[in-house]
Design goal:
Heat Shock Protein 90; single chain; alpha+beta; 18 strands; five-stranded mixed beta sheet
Length: 629
């Protein structure tokens, strides 16, 4: 059997190709499962980190709220307002000292007057609240933090940035002081020692996490000791803190959960400082075991799934081999039957095609013979009638001259002669029109044997057509809705071995058809119509749209293009039918385009194609071989 003769390597490649999608699918599912399993195992650690952040923010918020309330209470205390209004430093010192003794974590409490000078300050030394001597009171230059309190609002408590004095982290809160008349009398500034708050933050712990870290707005560690600012030690984490404010980062080295904290004063207070940042770090030692356990579980599951896939693919392959063996003979028989049927269908198609062409040719030949016979029978009486009409016109003129030479003719006689002359003109015009129709009828019987075949240059035919059409385009041309220009491209250098007479008749009829139909009525907005005749040589089979022309020789393409009103899509399929015209009773015979099609297909051995869009014009394409058949 054919399958038995296959190389073992080929069968192995087939199995590998079958297993490759399974491998990719199992690998993808394994990766997603690993991520999901790891996510489930890391969820408790993430929850611990969020809890630690919430506890730290709650503790810090409570501490700062107490500090803010203390500053507001001092700023709105009546005794302090009265002392500030009278500049009574003794009364001010008593009030501040009483509050300092009740709040031992306030390292300093100062009254700064409205000119920025420190007038009273309390300090804590060895657990006792004392007044600073007048010599140690600070000038504005010694208090750079004073600029943060320059525009305090009434009933506002504002914080300064975190500071470090004497090796301890401190924070200042200020509130304005007003007298009974509502005039600003300076401010009360509390310097708060944060060491106790930092100790409480350090005692906040979760089982698998490092202690909570607090960073100021410049990335300096506040709650723990770190040698470098966070911006230098971990620039990527610092960038995330600055851009996101809240989020997490997970790397091989662990997980970092962070959240910014922006102190806000109650009441009418405003955000008065840059944010601080809390960071909860889950170390690598806590994360790595979870990752390893998840990876091993997923790897074992993927290995088992891949082994099962190998068994399924091998069984499926054996089934396919058996099916291929059973279908091999049947496919051979079907192939032979299909080839025989295809040959029969092709022969039948060609036979029907030839039959249709033969029927059409016989119909046109019969029509041509009939019309030519009728034209021949009508030609003699029409010739006699035209001769008689010409004689009557001539004799009427002679009689009019003889009668007018002797005496003026009476008016009734003159009118009678004019009516006779008009009637004879109508007769002559009608006979001339009938003769033209008869000549067209006679051309329907023209075949290759009745016309001259020779070698000629295309430019000769185009020049003859141009000369014949001059009267229809010059000053003597019949009036049209818009003027029309004709441009015929040069055909110099193109030599044909064909029938120049029918070719010239085709080009002339196509241009005449455009003059008659394309611009009556003209498209909206058209001021100057144009008709162009273009020529080119297409290589063999260049643009064939029919398999019958796949092997035709080089052909000449002549295109007659107008920018007129176009052809109605309902009319377009019938324009080459004999005696079909849209100008019945207005000079149309329905023979012109049929003659063009007849000459192109039956005499010149080519095709006549048409493209048209209403309102945009039409394009007639004559395609004939350079050497006629």
């Amino acid at each position: 059997m054919a399958l038995d003769r296959r190389p073992r390597a080929s069968e192995g490649r087939i199995l590998v190709l079958r297993l490759l999608p399974w491998l990719l699918l199992i690998g993808l599912i394994g990766a997603l499962s690993y991520l999901r399993l790891l996510d489930l195992r890391l969820s408790p650690l993430r929850a611990q980190a969020r809890t630690l952040l919430e506890q730290g923010i709650a503790l810090t918020g409570s501490e700062l709220a107490d500090l803010s309330r203390s500053a507001l209470v001092l700023g709105q205390m009546p005794a302090i307002g009265v002392a500030a209004a009278s500049a009574d430093t003794s009364a001010m010192a008593s009030a501040l000292l009483a509050h300092a003794r009740a709040s031992p974590r306030h390292a300093e409490i100062s009254w700064i007057d409205e000119h920025g000078r420190e007038r009273v300050r309390t300090e804590h030394l060895d657990g006792m609240a004392l007044l600073a001597t007048s010599s140690t009171l600070r000038r504005p230059a010694q208090m750079p933090w004073l600029a943060h309190f320059a525009d305090l609002l009434p009933a506002e408590a504002r914080f300064s940035p975190l500071g470090r004095e004497g090796g301890r982290h401190t924070l200042r809160a200020a509130s304005p002081v007003y007298d009974a008349a509502g005039r600003l009398r300076g401010m009360v500034v509390i310097q708060h020692d944060l060491q106790a708050m930092m100790a409480r933050l350090a005692r906040l712990k979760q089982p698998a996490l490092e202690p909570l870290r607090l960073y100021d707005s410049e990335g300096r560690a506040v709650s723990i000791a770190e040698p470098q600012p966070l911006a230098m030690r971990d620039p990527e984490l610092w960038r995330m803190l600055q851009e996101q404010g809240r989020g997490r980062r997970e790397l091989d080295a662990g997980m970092w959960h962070f959240q910014d904290f922006l102190p806000a004063e109650p009441g009418a207070g405003r955000l008065a400082m840059q944010p601080w940042f809390f960071v909860a770090h889950v170390p690598r030692d806590s994360v790595e075991p979870l990752r390893h356990a998840s990876a091993w579980q997923c790897l074992l599951a993927c290995t088992a799934a891949f082994g099962l896939a190998v068994l399924l693919v091998r069984r499926q392959r054996r089934t396919e081999v058996e099916r291929e063996r059973l279908l091999a003979d049947l496919q051979t028989n079907h192939r032979a039957l299909a080839e025989a049927k295809a040959g029969a269908d092709d022969a039948l198609r060609r036979l029907r095609q030839l039959q249709d062409e033969l029927v059409q040719a016989e119909k046109l030949a019969s029509l041509g013979l009939l019309v030519a016979g009728v034209a021949h029978e009508l030609n003699t009486p029409l010739g006699s009638a035209r001769m008689t009409a010409s004689t009557l016109v001539r004799r009427l003129g002679e009689a009019e001259r003889e009668l007018g030479a002797t005496a003026p003719l009476p008016a009734p006689v003159t009118r009678l002669l004019e009516r006779q002359r008009a009637g004879l003109d109508i007769i002559e015009h009608g006979l001339e029109r009938a003769s033209q129709v008869i000549r067209l009828f006679k051309q329907l019987a023209v075949d290759r044997g009745a016309v001259e075949r020779r070698r000629f240059e295309l430019d000769e035919v185009l020049q003859d057509v141009r000369r014949l059409l001059v009267p229809r385009l010059g000053s003597e041309a019949p009036p049209r809705p818009v003027p029309v220009s004709l441009h015929i491209a040069s055909g110099a250098g193109l030599v044909l071995d064909s029938y120049p007479g029918p070719l010239g008749q085709v080009i002339e009829n196509l241009i005449g058809n455009a003059l008659m139909h394309a611009f009556d009525p003209p498209p909206p907005g058209l001021v100057q119509g144009s008709i162009r005749v273009l020529c080119r040589v297409d290589p063999a089979g260049g643009d064939s749209d029919d398999e019958r022309h796949d092997h035709r020789p080089d052909e000449l393409a002549i295109e007659v293009i107008d920018d007129g009103c176009g052809i109605d899509p309902l009319v377009l399929p019938r324009i080459f039918d004999p005696f079909f015209t849209t100008r019945r009773g207005r000079g149309g015979t329905g023979i012109g385009l049929h003659l063009c099609h007849h000459f192109c297909t039956q005499v010149l051995g080519g095709r006549l194609l048409v493209e048209s869009c209403p309102g945009e014009g039409s394009r007639f394409s004559v395609r004939i071989p350079l050497r006629a058949p």
